Amino acid sequence: MGTLTSETPSVAADVAAATVPAQAVPAAEVSTVDLARSSTRELNSTLHAEPEGSTRAFRVTHPVGTHSLAVGLRGPLHVTIEGHVGYYCAGMNQQATVVVEGNAGVGVAENMMSGRVHVTGDASQSAGATAHGGLLVIDGNAAARCGISMKGVDIVVGGNAGHMSAFMAQAGRLVICGDAGEALGDSIYEARIYVKGTVASLGADCIAKPMREQHLAELAELLSAAGRDDDPAEFTRYGSARTLYHFHVDNASSY
Amino acid sequence: MCGIAGLHLRDDELRPRLGQLLGGMLCQAAERGTDAAGIGIYGDPSLNPAGRSTVCVVDGPATTDAAVAAAAAVTALLGRPVDQRVAGQTALFTAAAGSADLEAAVRAALPEAVLTSRGTALSVLKGTGHPDALASTFSLAEATGYQGVAHTRMATESAVTSTGSHPYSVGPDQCMVHNGSFANHATIRRELMADGITFDSENDTEVGARFVAAQLAAGADVEKALRLLCERFDGFYTLLVATENSFAVVRDAIACKPAVIAETDRWVAMASEYRYLTGLPGIESARIFEPEPEVVYAWER
After folding, report:
1. Surface-to-core class of residue A39, CB atoms within 10 Å of its CB (0-12 exposed, 13-18 middle, 19+ buried)
2. A11-18 vs A213-225: helix axis angle to the nearest 10?
3. Where in the numbering of this chain does the Glutamine amidotransferase type-2 domain appear (chain B) (predicted)?
């Protein structure tokens, strides 16, 4: 994870860590957990009981919007959830690959540390909130506050992102291949935002910035990691104007 | 928290199943609040018989004997026969009379009771307690009709009482359910009271419902009334508002209270969480989306 002031962390190292591709696993080795018969706690306990370093694959059926599925994973498991999930799916993830074949509710991959979470449909609000690392891919739209207070995670949204996305974002990259809603990047610190479409409005202290070679390169890697073929040259970079978080002597009388 | 669910049918073939489908949604919603619950059902002939008006009350007769006596008192005042039914903490009165006349007679006969709805299309049944238990006292599984709303309450802004339960129906065949809390409801309540509007509860949502009813009475349509509400009210809200002919959803500018809408050729449904919708026929192929902040989504019959 980069520090708050480093604008150009090692892109190659970041992306390499974030984008270990899912290994093809023979069907016979995939364990199925049917949530029509097992509880959320049983699923999560089963996943947590895997020995350290296990790369076992799981398929979770009948999620029907249940909350807190596949949370707190700590090893390189591969979990595929067949359908829509509720709140906080894959929260606090470390190392694991979690694929949601459907939509995700509030706070998918919140506080993720590493690994990869892929939502094939839409994500509700606060996707990737406060996440420190790893890669969150949302093929559809993300609702409000995507990447709120992100602290190092990379997020790639295939569609649009809602209002107040990347609010107080501290580190990491947010890529929006569609349009961004109101107040993008409000009070942003050092995270970088790339938007292909339009931005309804920029939040306080968030500005458009030039796309330099290193930005085109890191965006290309992020898009590729997310399995997308968008042209990096069509994106605009946004980031902090750095007028909010440095002390300004004219404001001394306010303290 | 609080949980909201609503179902607006487009396919009349689903009308016999309205209560069963709404009941499935309500019981999923119980995890967002177990203090109280309520439903608003549109077009059930057992609640709103053709050619009659229906008035629902809470804090009124709680037993069949008491309701029979109350119906006799209302009959005497109205000058027409009044039928009654007790559904848990709610009592219903129907008569072949105008809603306003029946309402006046019920108010006069039962001064301690609080009206929860009046009209020819809508009945509102509500009370305190666990939503699953209340659904059974409402006989929700047997309810039919073309539209319904449901609410489970985790009380924040006023006490756990039957009058503090949702839906709020303060105008004929109108009702509102709310997840969130209005910040400036006391100010708006005083303004509405200064205009001569009276209130049944201390609840913040009732202020929103009275505001919308006042706008509708002044000639606004639901969409305009809700846009005016967004301008006037501060706070957090996801609102579902129904009238005899419409079904509408709006969220505040911050939109932190959850809402999901699903739509098929056969129905439109709104819920606090996706999982409430999983029992609806054809949900697999529904168009599912989250409403944008301060955008009014409305469907007309």
Report:
1. exposed
2. 10
3. 2-301
Q: What angle do CA B40, B45, B46 make, to 5 degrees?
A: 80
Express each pLDDT in B160-195 by its tens digit. 988 889 999 999 999 999 999 999 999 999 999 999
Q: Does CATH number 1.10.3470 belong to domain B51-120?
A: no
Write down the architecture of domain B3-48+121-300 according to CATH. Answer: 4-Layer Sandwich (3.60)
Q: Is B273 on the interface with A (CB under 8 A)?
A: yes
CA B301/CA B243 separation, integer angstroms: 10
Q: How many inter-chain contacts (A to B, CB under 8 Å) are there?
A: 43
CATH 3.30.70 location in chain B: 51-120
* Closest CB from B255, B260, B276 relative to A144: B255
Report the greatest alpha carbon distance in chain B: 54
Write the pLDDT tens digit of every residue in B132-166. 999 999 999 999 999 999 999 998 878 898 888 99
| Contact residues, chain A to chain B, C-beta under 8 Å | 64-67, 84, 86-87, 103, 105-106, 122, 124-125, 143-144, 162-163, 181
Q: B63: distance to nearest CA of chain A, Å? A: 39
In chain B, ranges of CATH 3.60.20.10 domains:
3-48+121-300
Residue type, A212: R
Cβ pair A71, A52 in contact under 8 A: no
3-state secondary structure of A42: helix
Contact A86 B277 (CB under 8 A): no
B2 classed as catalytic: yes
